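Listing S7. Sequence submitted for prediction.
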Amino acid sequence: MDPNYVESILILNERGDSDAVRPWLVHRGFSVTPMRAGFLVSGPKDNFETTFSVDLAEAEPPIQLPIPREISRYVASFGIPKPRQVH
C-alpha cells in the first residue's frame, strides 16, 4: 500500500445531495467513486492534509476527518477506515 495515497469513506445523511458533495470533492482534486450510502474518496495524502487541515503523518486509522462547512449539511460521517486484514 502506498503511504502517500489515502482512501476514505464519506457517508451522506438523509439530506445527502450527491450533486453538491461530489463536485466539491472533485474540484479539490479527489477521485470520487459512488457507493450505496456515499462515496469512496481517494487521493494523495498531502491533498487530504491541505484540504481538511489535518496531519496524517503519525495518524493510525480509523480516523474521523473534519466535515467542511460547505458540504456539512449533506454529510453524516467522513473518515479513513482501518485497513482490512487479509489472511
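Caption to Listing S7: primary sequence and predicted C-alpha cells for the chain studied. The two ends are 16 Å apart (CA to CA). DSSP finds two helices and five strands in the chain.
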